[in-house]
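Annex B. Sample input.
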Amino acid sequence: MRRILPVALILTTTLAAGACGAPGSSSRTTTQQQAPASYRATAPLPAAPGQVTMGSAGFPESELLAHLYADAMKARGVSVQIHANIGERAAYISALKEGSIGAVPEYTGAILNYLAPGQKATSPQNIYTQLRRTAEAQGLAVTDYAPAQDADTITVAKATADKYRLSTIGDLRHVAGRLDLGAPQPLLTVPYGVPGLKKVYGVAFKQFVALAPTGTITQTALRNGTVDAADIFSTDPAISRYGFVSLKDPHHLFAAQNVVPLFKRDVLTQPMADACNAVSAKLTTAVLGELDAQIAKGADPESLAHQWLAANGLA
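Annex B, continued. Sample output.
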Protein backbone atom coordinates (compact mmCIF):
# COMPACT_ATOMS: atom_id res chain seq x y z
CA MET A 1 0.00 0.00 0.00
CA ARG A 2 1.61 3.22 -1.06
CA ARG A 3 0.10 5.60 1.41
CA ILE A 4 -2.70 5.88 3.90
CA LEU A 5 -4.11 9.32 3.36
CA PRO A 6 -5.54 11.55 6.07
CA VAL A 7 -8.96 10.54 7.37
CA ALA A 8 -8.01 6.95 6.57
CA LEU A 9 -8.56 7.01 2.83
CA ILE A 10 -6.85 3.83 1.68
CA LEU A 11 -5.84 3.49 -1.93
CA THR A 12 -4.06 0.37 -3.10
CA THR A 13 -1.97 1.10 -6.15
CA THR A 14 0.66 -0.28 -8.41
CA LEU A 15 3.70 1.70 -9.52
CA ALA A 16 2.26 2.47 -12.91
CA ALA A 17 -0.73 3.76 -11.08
CA GLY A 18 1.69 5.91 -9.32
CA ALA A 19 -1.68 7.52 -9.62
CA CYS A 20 -0.29 9.13 -7.28
CA GLY A 21 1.58 10.59 -6.18
CA ALA A 22 5.15 11.26 -4.92
CA PRO A 23 6.56 14.53 -5.39
CA GLY A 24 10.56 18.92 -10.31
CA SER A 25 8.86 20.91 -12.79
CA SER A 26 5.85 22.98 -11.86
CA SER A 27 3.61 20.71 -13.88
CA ARG A 28 4.64 17.61 -11.92
CA THR A 29 4.27 18.61 -8.33
CA THR A 30 2.19 20.27 -5.68
CA THR A 31 4.41 22.17 -3.26
CA GLN A 32 8.17 22.03 -3.73
CA GLN A 33 10.24 23.05 -0.74
CA GLN A 34 13.89 22.56 0.08
CA ALA A 35 14.68 20.01 2.74
CA PRO A 36 15.36 21.46 6.19
CA ALA A 37 18.85 21.87 7.63
CA SER A 38 20.76 18.68 8.44
CA TYR A 39 19.15 16.39 10.96
CA ARG A 40 19.78 17.24 14.60
CA ALA A 41 18.54 14.72 17.11
CA THR A 42 17.57 15.60 20.66
CA ALA A 43 20.79 13.82 21.71
CA PRO A 44 24.03 13.36 19.74
CA LEU A 45 24.02 10.41 17.34
CA PRO A 46 26.75 7.76 17.48
CA ALA A 47 29.71 8.55 15.25
CA ALA A 48 30.40 4.93 14.30
CA PRO A 49 28.72 3.84 11.03
CA GLY A 50 26.70 1.06 12.66
CA GLN A 51 24.42 -1.44 10.96
CA VAL A 52 20.82 -1.40 9.81
CA THR A 53 18.26 -3.48 7.96
CA MET A 54 16.37 -1.29 5.51
CA GLY A 55 12.81 -2.39 4.82
CA SER A 56 10.32 -1.30 2.17
CA ALA A 57 6.61 -1.39 1.57
CA GLY A 58 5.17 -3.72 -1.04
CA PHE A 59 5.33 -1.52 -4.13
CA PRO A 60 8.16 -0.63 -6.54
CA GLU A 61 8.66 3.03 -5.58
CA SER A 62 9.22 2.08 -1.95
CA GLU A 63 11.69 -0.63 -2.97
CA LEU A 64 13.55 1.90 -5.13
CA LEU A 65 13.75 4.38 -2.25
CA ALA A 66 14.97 1.67 0.11
CA HIS A 67 17.84 0.86 -2.25
CA LEU A 68 18.68 4.54 -2.77
CA TYR A 69 19.06 5.18 0.94
CA ALA A 70 20.65 1.79 1.68
CA ASP A 71 23.35 2.09 -0.99
CA ALA A 72 24.17 5.65 0.06
CA MET A 73 24.63 4.43 3.64
CA LYS A 74 26.86 1.58 2.46
CA ALA A 75 29.07 4.14 0.73
CA ARG A 76 29.63 5.75 4.15
CA GLY A 77 30.65 2.52 5.80
CA VAL A 78 27.31 1.44 7.23
CA SER A 79 26.60 -2.30 7.22
CA VAL A 80 23.24 -2.57 5.47
CA GLN A 81 20.86 -5.39 4.67
CA ILE A 82 17.67 -5.05 2.64
CA HIS A 83 14.27 -6.54 3.50
CA ALA A 84 12.11 -5.36 0.59
CA ASN A 85 8.40 -5.74 -0.07
CA ILE A 86 7.28 -6.31 3.51
CA GLY A 87 3.73 -5.27 2.69
CA GLU A 88 1.39 -2.64 4.08
CA ARG A 89 2.21 0.07 6.59
CA ALA A 90 0.92 -1.81 9.63
CA ALA A 91 3.27 -4.70 8.87
CA TYR A 92 6.46 -2.74 8.33
CA ILE A 93 5.88 -0.28 11.17
CA SER A 94 5.37 -3.23 13.49
CA ALA A 95 8.64 -4.72 12.20
CA LEU A 96 10.37 -1.37 12.74
CA LYS A 97 9.16 -0.96 16.30
CA GLU A 98 10.05 -4.51 17.33
CA GLY A 99 13.44 -4.27 15.64
CA SER A 100 13.44 -6.81 12.80
CA ILE A 101 14.11 -3.84 10.51
CA GLY A 102 15.79 -0.59 11.48
CA ALA A 103 14.62 1.83 8.79
CA VAL A 104 12.06 2.26 6.02
CA PRO A 105 11.30 4.99 3.45
CA GLU A 106 8.09 6.84 4.22
CA TYR A 107 5.90 9.80 3.22
CA THR A 108 5.61 12.58 5.76
CA GLY A 109 1.87 13.28 5.77
CA ALA A 110 0.87 9.63 5.65
CA ILE A 111 3.19 8.42 8.39
CA LEU A 112 2.31 11.34 10.66
CA ASN A 113 -1.36 10.50 10.26
CA TYR A 114 -0.62 6.84 10.99
CA LEU A 115 1.43 7.52 14.12
CA ALA A 116 -0.80 10.35 15.40
CA PRO A 117 -4.25 10.27 13.74
CA GLY A 118 -6.11 13.55 13.52
CA GLN A 119 -3.14 15.86 13.03
CA LYS A 120 -4.14 19.00 11.11
CA ALA A 121 -0.80 20.02 9.57
CA THR A 122 -0.70 20.05 5.76
CA SER A 123 2.38 22.05 4.70
CA PRO A 124 5.75 20.28 4.29
CA GLN A 125 7.53 22.00 7.18
CA ASN A 126 4.61 21.88 9.62
CA ILE A 127 4.08 18.19 8.97
CA TYR A 128 7.78 17.50 9.39
CA THR A 129 7.98 19.41 12.66
CA GLN A 130 5.09 17.42 14.12
CA LEU A 131 6.44 14.17 12.68
CA ARG A 132 9.80 14.62 14.37
CA ARG A 133 8.17 15.14 17.75
CA THR A 134 5.78 12.24 17.26
CA ALA A 135 8.49 9.87 16.06
CA GLU A 136 10.83 10.69 18.95
CA ALA A 137 8.03 10.05 21.44
CA GLN A 138 7.52 6.57 19.96
CA GLY A 139 11.17 5.53 19.86
CA LEU A 140 11.58 6.45 16.19
CA ALA A 141 13.44 9.16 14.28
CA VAL A 142 13.36 10.80 10.87
CA THR A 143 16.21 12.30 8.91
CA ASP A 144 15.67 15.16 6.43
CA TYR A 145 12.70 15.00 4.10
CA ALA A 146 13.23 15.23 0.36
CA PRO A 147 11.64 17.84 -1.91
CA ALA A 148 10.16 14.79 -3.72
CA GLN A 149 6.50 14.21 -2.98
CA ASP A 150 4.21 11.34 -3.86
CA ALA A 151 1.06 13.33 -3.20
CA ASP A 152 -2.44 13.73 -4.57
CA THR A 153 -2.81 16.27 -7.34
CA ILE A 154 -5.69 17.59 -9.40
CA THR A 155 -4.36 16.94 -12.89
CA VAL A 156 -5.67 17.93 -16.33
CA ALA A 157 -4.69 17.32 -19.93
CA LYS A 158 -2.41 19.99 -21.39
CA ALA A 159 -5.13 21.03 -23.85
CA THR A 160 -7.47 21.70 -20.92
CA ALA A 161 -4.81 23.65 -19.04
CA ASP A 162 -4.08 25.75 -22.13
CA LYS A 163 -7.74 26.32 -23.00
CA TYR A 164 -8.68 27.61 -19.53
CA ARG A 165 -5.25 28.98 -18.54
CA LEU A 166 -4.97 26.68 -15.56
CA SER A 167 -1.89 26.51 -13.35
CA THR A 168 -3.38 26.22 -9.84
CA ILE A 169 -6.44 24.49 -8.42
CA GLY A 170 -7.94 27.91 -7.73
CA ASP A 171 -7.87 28.70 -11.45
CA LEU A 172 -10.64 26.12 -11.85
CA ARG A 173 -13.09 28.21 -9.87
CA HIS A 174 -14.79 29.82 -12.86
CA VAL A 175 -14.72 26.81 -15.21
CA ALA A 176 -15.16 23.73 -13.01
CA GLY A 177 -18.94 23.89 -13.43
CA ARG A 178 -18.38 22.78 -17.04
CA LEU A 179 -15.92 19.99 -16.16
CA ASP A 180 -16.06 16.47 -14.73
CA LEU A 181 -13.70 15.25 -12.01
CA GLY A 182 -12.57 11.63 -11.89
CA ALA A 183 -11.28 10.12 -8.63
CA PRO A 184 -11.71 7.14 -6.31
CA GLN A 185 -15.12 7.13 -4.61
CA PRO A 186 -13.88 8.20 -1.13
CA LEU A 187 -12.72 11.54 -2.54
CA LEU A 188 -16.38 12.48 -2.93
CA THR A 189 -16.85 12.82 0.83
CA VAL A 190 -13.51 13.10 2.67
CA PRO A 191 -12.72 16.64 3.89
CA TYR A 192 -9.75 17.09 1.55
CA GLY A 193 -11.73 15.82 -1.45
CA VAL A 194 -14.77 17.37 -3.12
CA PRO A 195 -15.84 19.22 0.07
CA GLY A 196 -12.35 20.65 0.45
CA LEU A 197 -12.16 21.79 -3.16
CA LYS A 198 -15.33 23.80 -2.55
CA LYS A 199 -14.35 25.12 0.88
CA VAL A 200 -10.69 25.95 0.21
CA TYR A 201 -10.76 26.97 -3.45
CA GLY A 202 -14.42 27.60 -4.27
CA VAL A 203 -14.21 24.88 -6.93
CA ALA A 204 -17.32 22.81 -7.69
CA PHE A 205 -17.17 20.40 -10.62
CA LYS A 206 -20.16 19.65 -12.82
CA GLN A 207 -19.97 15.96 -12.06
CA PHE A 208 -17.93 13.51 -9.98
CA VAL A 209 -16.98 10.30 -11.79
CA ALA A 210 -15.96 7.47 -9.47
CA LEU A 211 -12.89 5.66 -10.81
CA ALA A 212 -11.10 2.60 -9.49
CA PRO A 213 -7.80 3.65 -7.88
CA THR A 214 -5.45 2.40 -10.56
CA GLY A 215 -3.30 4.56 -12.75
CA THR A 216 -4.29 2.93 -16.02
CA ILE A 217 -7.99 3.56 -15.52
CA THR A 218 -7.45 7.17 -14.47
CA GLN A 219 -4.96 7.90 -17.24
CA THR A 220 -7.29 6.50 -19.88
CA ALA A 221 -10.27 8.47 -18.61
CA LEU A 222 -8.28 11.69 -18.70
CA ARG A 223 -6.76 10.99 -22.10
CA ASN A 224 -10.02 10.07 -23.83
CA GLY A 225 -12.05 12.88 -22.27
CA THR A 226 -14.25 10.73 -20.05
CA VAL A 227 -13.19 13.16 -17.31
CA ASP A 228 -11.66 16.62 -17.58
CA ALA A 229 -9.65 16.51 -14.36
CA ALA A 230 -8.47 13.65 -12.20
CA ASP A 231 -6.87 12.83 -8.88
CA ILE A 232 -3.41 11.52 -9.85
CA PHE A 233 -0.38 11.02 -7.64
CA SER A 234 2.48 13.33 -8.45
CA THR A 235 5.09 10.70 -9.40
CA ASP A 236 2.80 8.86 -11.79
CA PRO A 237 4.85 8.33 -14.97
CA ALA A 238 1.74 9.15 -17.01
CA ILE A 239 2.10 12.83 -16.11
CA SER A 240 5.25 13.24 -18.15
CA ARG A 241 4.41 10.53 -20.68
CA TYR A 242 1.19 12.20 -21.76
CA GLY A 243 2.04 15.80 -20.98
CA PHE A 244 -0.56 16.12 -18.22
CA VAL A 245 -0.50 19.23 -16.04
CA SER A 246 -0.74 18.82 -12.26
CA LEU A 247 -2.26 21.98 -10.83
CA LYS A 248 -0.45 23.66 -7.96
CA ASP A 249 -2.05 23.47 -4.52
CA PRO A 250 -0.86 26.67 -2.76
CA HIS A 251 -3.27 26.29 0.17
CA HIS A 252 -2.20 22.69 0.85
CA LEU A 253 -5.62 21.10 0.50
CA PHE A 254 -3.78 17.82 0.07
CA ALA A 255 -1.33 17.14 2.87
CA ALA A 256 2.32 17.17 1.83
CA GLN A 257 3.77 13.71 1.23
CA ASN A 258 7.51 14.31 1.15
CA VAL A 259 9.74 11.26 1.01
CA VAL A 260 11.50 10.75 4.36
CA PRO A 261 13.59 7.94 5.89
CA LEU A 262 12.10 6.64 9.16
CA PHE A 263 14.44 4.90 11.64
CA LYS A 264 14.20 3.04 14.88
CA ARG A 265 15.75 5.67 17.14
CA ASP A 266 18.38 3.46 18.78
CA VAL A 267 19.64 2.26 15.38
CA LEU A 268 20.31 5.66 13.80
CA THR A 269 23.91 6.88 13.62
CA GLN A 270 25.36 10.11 12.28
CA PRO A 271 26.83 8.46 9.15
CA MET A 272 23.38 7.00 8.41
CA ALA A 273 21.76 10.41 8.82
CA ASP A 274 24.41 12.12 6.69
CA ALA A 275 24.01 9.56 3.90
CA CYS A 276 20.22 9.78 3.88
CA ASN A 277 20.30 13.58 3.98
CA ALA A 278 22.60 13.66 0.95
CA VAL A 279 20.15 11.51 -1.03
CA SER A 280 17.12 13.51 0.10
CA ALA A 281 18.75 16.80 -0.90
CA LYS A 282 18.91 15.67 -4.54
CA LEU A 283 15.61 13.80 -4.75
CA THR A 284 12.91 15.92 -6.40
CA THR A 285 9.48 14.94 -7.57
CA ALA A 286 10.60 15.10 -11.19
CA VAL A 287 13.58 12.85 -10.50
CA LEU A 288 11.46 10.32 -8.62
CA GLY A 289 8.85 10.35 -11.37
CA GLU A 290 11.51 9.68 -13.99
CA LEU A 291 12.92 6.78 -11.97
CA ASP A 292 9.42 5.37 -11.50
CA ALA A 293 8.87 5.58 -15.25
CA GLN A 294 12.01 3.53 -15.86
CA ILE A 295 10.82 0.88 -13.41
CA ALA A 296 7.44 0.80 -15.14
CA LYS A 297 9.33 -0.02 -18.34
CA GLY A 298 11.11 -2.93 -16.67
CA ALA A 299 14.19 -1.47 -14.96
CA ASP A 300 15.36 -3.24 -11.80
CA PRO A 301 14.94 -0.95 -8.74
CA GLU A 302 18.23 -2.02 -7.16
CA SER A 303 20.28 -1.48 -10.32
CA LEU A 304 18.53 1.77 -11.07
CA ALA A 305 19.20 3.08 -7.56
CA HIS A 306 22.90 2.29 -7.86
CA GLN A 307 23.12 4.00 -11.26
CA TRP A 308 21.43 7.15 -9.98
CA LEU A 309 23.59 7.33 -6.88
CA ALA A 310 26.75 6.89 -8.96
CA ALA A 311 25.65 9.60 -11.38
CA ASN A 312 25.09 11.96 -8.46
CA GLY A 313 28.33 11.19 -6.61
CA LEU A 314 26.59 9.36 -3.79
CA ALA A 315 27.59 5.74 -4.42
